[in-house]
Amino acid sequence: MNLLKRGVEMGSEELGETIFKEDKGHFWGLIETRPFMRAKSNYAFALRKSGNTQEAIKHYEELLELNPMDNQGVRYELIEAYLATKSIKKAKDLLKKYPEDSTDNLYNLALIEYMEHGNTVKLKKYLKEAKKHNPFVGDYLSGKKKLPSTLPEYYGWGDENEAIVYAAKFKDVWTEEPALLKIL
């Protein structure tokens, strides 16, 4: 992890302060910034996996400031970190900023609704939509089906492999809400 941190520091030094001010918002469009962006993303990921979620969040948020179009898909890692730390408002804002009808977003909307308000009509609506998009997720989150030891190499929207990938990322957060799992 120290090498990743050093890579981010060296990249920042090499690029210089000016580029961070002048090109904030379209950083990814500059080819010379991409190695830095990749290093920073990898460093944030390593921080998250080592349990330093708050520090990882800081780096992910900085990446989105530099590149709001999120060509790297940082938002998917960030939402996981937000939900793990119960940063519900930030998670909700992130989903609003990057709306999409994906399994991740649909199930996360339901999770957020439950964490904020409990068992509501809106929760039932979100779960219905999420299940319609991918009916396999519930079996993996509830433990009815066991997650494989390795993640699938590919997945398609709405297929079982996508459900496995989602459950592997978010099962810990859902497990903290046993009443929601029963509703699911």
Automatic annotation (TrEMBL):
<dbReference type="InterPro" id="IPR019734">
    <property type="entry name" value="TPR_rpt"/>
</dbReference>
<protein>
    <submittedName>
        <fullName>Tetratricopeptide repeat protein</fullName>
    </submittedName>
</protein>
<feature type="repeat" description="TPR">
    <location>
        <begin position="37"/>
        <end position="70"/>
    </location>
</feature>
<keyword id="KW-0802">TPR repeat</keyword>
<dbReference type="Pfam" id="PF14559">
    <property type="entry name" value="TPR_19"/>
</dbReference>
<dbReference type="InterPro" id="IPR011990">
    <property type="entry name" value="TPR-like_helical_dom_sf"/>
</dbReference>
